[in-house]
Amino acid sequence: MAPVLEIRDLQVGVDTGREVLSVLDGISLSLEPGRTIGIVGESGCGKSMTALATMGLLPDRFAITGGQILFEGEDLASMPDRQRRRLRGNALSMIFQEPMTALNPVLTVGRQIGEVLELHQGLSGHEARQRALDMLRAVQIPAPERRLDNYPHELSGGMRQRVMIAIALACRPKLIIADEPTTALDVTVQAQIFRLLRELQGETDTAIMLITHDLGAVAEMADDVAVFYAGKCIETGPVAQILQHPSHPYTQGLMVCTPTMRLGAAALAESPPALGEIAGIVPPVGRFPKACRFAPRCPLADDRCRTEDPPLRALGAAHAALCWKAEEEAFA
Amino acid sequence: MTETLLSVEDLKVHFPLASGDVVHAVDGVTFDVARGACFGIVGESGSGKSTVARALMRLEDPTEGRITLGTDEISSLSGDRLRALRHRFQMIFQDPYSSLNPRLRAGQAVREPLDLMGLDIKGGREQWVRQCFADVGLHPDSTRLFPHQFSGGQRQRLSIARALATQPSLIVCDEPVSALDVAIQAQILNLLRRIQREKFLTFVFISHDLAVVQNICTEVAVMYLGEFVERAPTGQLYAAAKHPYTWSLMAAALTPENSRRAGERFTITGEPPSPIDPPKGCRFAGRCPFATDTCVAEKPAIRDFGGGHTVACHYAGELTPPLEELAA
């Protein structure tokens, strides 16, 4: 199937006034209709920048400096703003982490959902309101007729996130980028939102790019995974492969430092061992190490890792890692 | 070994609103914490868990109930008499960005409680501050830096150093790792575990994350709308939880090893009701798939299931858990 989104060797830089520092370096990934890709990594690894570059919402001073972002075959990176605006909120939409700041506080939720429909689909005010009501129903908001005229502050966090999803889905987009959509929510509400996203995805065949720091969320939602570190995509593959046989030492590190809940008889075994650790912190933009960027924190790094760029090694069907050691690890 | 350090009896914290309504943030919780134990409180936003933490620290005044630390009842003290005890209980906050004064150097931030409480330390305060830095894995020379010059993880280490400075016996941790990335979270959790063991500290540990709580706590209470619905030693709770709300939290917790899909999970609907006018009967009844008329009408008693396992549910022990690991 033809991918909805194909990012090829994307480069993003930030202009500090003195020099242009590399923020994203050679990101490539592809996403088919109806599938979900999870983008994981710590803060400062470039996950959100990839999302913003795709949406054309990079902050001031940040710019795409190379590569292509192909959306249904058309390059978003080189597309004029006017054309891009026609896609955004229509075929291509985004769910943000904090619904309180992403929603307009002085417009009712009905108005905000209706707005995208009037703008992109030329609906009249009355039609848009009717569709907004349908959308509130679709995202399972109780008493939707009453909620239509509510302002964001009158809703709970979980309901606001549902409204945001309603806005994002109103025009039946081909691609949704969800940037930490449940991080601000409680776990029981998170479970509801994930279930809702999957149901709606099943109905519309929308592709989802899920940005998260939570490997548990990836296990729950994603078909494929891309692990980011210091502006590079260091491992990609099917979700089961990545979570059960991580090959890059950084991915392995993320796995061992995530506490996992043990239920039943396993919980009565001796007290849980100390968590694994990845020493040090993610290097800031402008101070990415040469050669392998993870080498200074990597327990396996040797001289070659510190002097030569690691190759992208194929480790099986659709599974690849940017690491000198990956092969030995995978077959160890 | 089982000497009780902290004892909380029927703690209530109510906040009156201008409208005349009252927010029942904490509505009667009772627990003891043994010296050297780590008592976890889990729950969702609005459950009142942070208010319990703040009441223990006397940052909120209890409306009713008693809090006893060692032999001192701290819930009724104020002014100088409270200040004289402050060095024995300290707090670590969630957000290391807002809980440190940006204009104080790191060393001063750690030293400040010693100066304010007039605590003298053998070898001098300055030397002690450097020792505290070393204890939490910060370079002693970083005492001259300002908070913004530290990373998020280092800043949380700094908060821990400040909490340790007065040599407290109790540390209340309110979501101490929630704002941190997973790799940093692991570093800080391991650090907390190590200093607790080395210094024989007692922790009250507030978190929304069941996996984190299982990793560090010896006993856990599950809080919902101002009340404890279930409480047990950690192993017992995760092996044989009996309250439907605890089940729903466990079912909703995501783990990378276990990719159960959202559709197959036990999920509850809706969101917690308002603490302004909490339901008369069981507070969870409105969201509980097992609820009956009895649940709506009558408040369930806290029942003891042995071994320190207590549950506030009319049907505890009779229901089949919707999680196969627990049913086995």
Automatic annotation (TrEMBL), chain A:
Location within or outside the cell: Cell inner membrane
GO terms classed as biological process: peptide transport; transmembrane transport
Keywords tagged on the record: ATP-binding, Cell membrane, Membrane, Nucleotide-binding, Transport
Membrane topology recorded in Swiss-Prot or TrEMBL: Peripheral membrane protein
InterPro entries hit by this protein: AAA+_ATPase, ABC_Ni/Peptide_Import, ABC_transporter-like_ATP-bd, ABC_transporter-like_CS, Oligopep_ABC_C, P-loop_NTPase
Pfam families linked: ABC_tran, oligo_HPY
Cross-referenced SMART domains: AAA
Gene3D superfamilies reported for this sequence: P-loop containing nucleotide triphosphate hydrolases (3.40.50.300)
Keyword ATP-binding: yes
Gene Ontology terms, MF aspect: ATP binding; ATP hydrolysis activity
Principal localisation: membrane
GO cellular component, one term: plasma membrane
Domain ABC transporter: 5-255
Family membership: Belongs to the ABC transporter superfamily.
Name listed for the protein in its UniProt record: ABC transporter ATP-binding protein
Organism: Pseudoroseicyclus tamaricis
TrEMBL record, chain B:
UniProt keyword Nucleotide-binding present: yes
Stretches assigned to the ABC transporter domain: 6-250
Gene Ontology CC entries for this record: plasma membrane
InterPro entries, alphabetized: AAA+_ATPase, ABC_transp_ATP-bind, ABC_transporter-like_ATP-bd, ABC_transporter-like_CS, Oligopep_ABC_C, P-loop_NTPase
Transmembrane stretches, start-end: none
A Gene Ontology biological process term: transmembrane transport
Predominant location: membrane
Record's keyword annotation contains Cell membrane: no
GO MF annotations in UniProt: ATP binding; ATP hydrolysis activity
Topological type in the membrane: Peripheral membrane protein
NCBIfam families linked: oligo_HPY (TIGR01727)
PANTHER family xref list: D,D-DIPEPTIDE TRANSPORT ATP-BINDING PROTEIN DDPF-RELATED, TRANSPORT ATP-BINDING PROTEIN
Family as reported in the entry's similarity comment: Belongs to the ABC transporter superfamily.
Name the UniProt record assigns to this protein: ABC transporter ATP-binding protein
